[in-house]
Amino acid sequence: MDWQNLRDRLGPLRTRWDLAVLTNLADSDGPVRPADLIRAINAQSQDGQISWKVLEARLRRLETAAYVRRQEVRHVPRETWYSLLSRGRRLVAALTMLDDLYDERDLGLGPDGDTPPALQKG
Predict the structure, then answer these.
(1) Residue 99: CB partners within 8 Å, gap ≥ 6?
(2) How far is 17 from 115, CA to CA, in rounded Å?
(3) Which of 30, 43, 71, 117 could form a Cys-Cys staple with 81, CB 3.0–4.6 A?
(4) What pLDDT is stored for residue 108 in this prediction?
């Protein structure tokens, strides 16, 4: 595996908010307005709130990296919608597999969650 290439490809995922944006877009049935996105992310967050400025910066970066598509609807008032591109959907699928890999049941850990069964006193 070319770890430097992988690092470059994952470069846009620099903050927790990147993951929050991607997973919320993946969970939606279609394009999402930024107002709905920020509301959903802030409702889920247990350790802080994303600001409009940060959300806009993260969306721009994910768009530049071709993970997210931005659509402007030209009417009054103007609306902007965001959705995942196929590259973003593939990334979310890979991250979901990684999350599943780290499920404690898959790690072979004992009932205490830390010690492998072979090393537990019993």
Answers:
(1) none
(2) 32
(3) 71
(4) 61
